[in-house]
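hiii, so i know i said id send this last week but things got crazy w the move. better late than never?? heres the sequnce for the chain we talked about at the cafe, plus the structure i predicted for it. fair warning i was half asleep when i ran it
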Amino acid sequence: MVRMPIPNYTPEHRRSLAQKLGIDEQYLYQIVRGIRVASPALARSLNAEDPDAQLQDLRPDDWHLIWPELAMTSKSASR
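okay and structure toks below
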């Protein structure tokens, strides 16, 4: 499965999404740009608001440890 990058949001959409998530817009910008990593809870919330923001992209180094069910799904899909 080819990983898609985190969506590149317009500033207006980023502000709206940050408000829905209860976080600062600049923090969301840093997550989207890969400067910061979302907490597992925030990653789930962001993914719920925008399914294009994949958990694997939001937590690239440890998603398979946090959500082992996704690792199982990824292995099944690659067969």
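btw The chain has a mean pLDDT of 87. thought thatd interest u
miss u guys!!
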